[in-house]
Amino acid sequence: MHLNHDDLVLHYYGETPAGERRRVGDHLAACDACTEEYASLRAALVLVDEAPVEEPGPAFEREVWARLQPHLTRRPWWRRGIAGGPVSWVAAGALAATLAVAFLGGWLARDRTMTPGADGVEADAGTERVLLVAVGEHLERSQMVLVELMNAGEGEDVVFAGGQDGVADLVAANRLYRQSAAQAGDGTMAEVLEELERVLVEIANAPPGVAEVELTALRERVERRGILFRVRVLTSEMRAREQQTVTDRQRSES
Amino acid sequence: MHESDRETVARVASGGEEGFRALVERHSRYLYHVAFRLTGQAMDAEDVVQDTFLKAHRQWRQFEGRADVRTWLHRIAVNCAIDLIRARRHRELGTDPADLETAGRTPMVAGLPPPDRVVEGRQIGAKVAEALGALTALERAAFTLRHVEGLSIREIGESLGLKSEATKHSIFRAVRKMRVALEPLMETRTRGGAARAAQG
After folding, report:
1. Per residue in B141-191, pLDDT tens?
2. Are A26 and A117 members of one domain?
3. A136 in the same domain as A162
């Protein structure tokens, strides 16, 4: 009996089960049809090896460094603020809270039939874009908190102070976004926001001089649950949807 | 003369930020290639590169110069990419199991250019990228980890949280799709080789 495609793939990668190796080897040595099929498989996979990979832009290395460098300084994150600069957290929190109420409307609006040029549709699209920007910014700020948490050097004098107010504002905003997402039936987003919120709450409520062991446990949880990556994926989706609203709007205007 | 990795590593170990910057500038493009092959998305690859260096900086004491620094960074990058793929998979399974089979899939570009216009190099890259783009996120990750990274099926299963049979079938499906997508290019190559042989 001839070898099938899966047999040949396993043979190519040296993953044929030990008890089958001799049979496969002997058959390939004796069967022209299977030898030809195997050669064809190899030829396809060689093309993959030969293919150059997409290159990032010429300034890629500098850009990577520019993004990294603020996170590599040794000053504790809570003394630096979040996102590398002073933030008006009271204003940000108030804005987030206001937008969160409207957010539910915007969330639901995305499922409406969008007829280019129809009355009200452009306003909906504009509102949705503003909401997407707000949620995206919230996620980016939260992401920075997580990155700073993960990047805090071991053995540093960990004292949660100052910046915790900012994290507390993020918790408040996050709660509203999460509730809005849940009410709008977006269980996936609500779930990620819930995971995020638990971490933010722990940071916001951590006493001054929190033990390193607790911080380590928190980091492990973030890593084990993939929270940082899930927030990143969500942030990317927000950016993509924001871009889509711009594209839709341009299309409807042309 | 360029500084060697060994000298740069010594500078990082002594606390020099410039030393770490040199590592970033020397290896980030290579790590981008690794991450892009696995994730298939430029933005994801950029995130993986950034997270790789953040982890490397945080875990610097674990490096201790025992391995080649590029090999060490490569391993971190692969793990970061796997984490990203797993996190996405977790999300997608939470929404709809079917999404896992379509995530990361981009529409196939219809039709190949006529055989006589197919040239080596860049066009092969474009066709392979197109073929990889037609795989699901899981198929792409399993295939790339096996084909490019050389991980065993068992290791891939452990990394992606799949059973052995599921891992195998992801790879089988990926290879089958790649072959179908690359078939016209292989035919062109075969014809080109035959023509050159006839002329010679």
Report:
1. 999 999 998 999 999 998 888 899 999 999 999 999 999 999 888 877 766
2. no
3. yes
- Confidence band of A240 (pLDDT split at 50, 70, 90): confident
Interface test with A, best of B11, B21, B146, B159 (most A CBs within 10 A): B21
Q: What is the CATH number of the domain that holds B74?
A: 1.10.1740.10
CB A136 within 8 A of CB A245: no
**Cβ contact, residue pair B53, A192, below 8 Å:** no
Taking 60 as the threshold, does the pLDDT of residue A107 lie above it?
no
Domain extent, residue B43, equals: 1-96
Structure tokens belonging to residue B98:
């079917």
- Residue type at position A156: E
- The pLDDT, as a whole number, for residue B154 is 92
Residue partners of B65: CB distance under 8 A and separation at least 6 = B6, B9, B13
* pTM attached to this predicted model: 0.55
Do the Cβ atoms of A43 and B146 come within 8 Å?
A: no
Band (B92; pLDDT cuts 50, 70, 90):
low
Q: What is the tally of structural domains in chain A?
A: 2
CB pairs under 8 A between A and B: 136
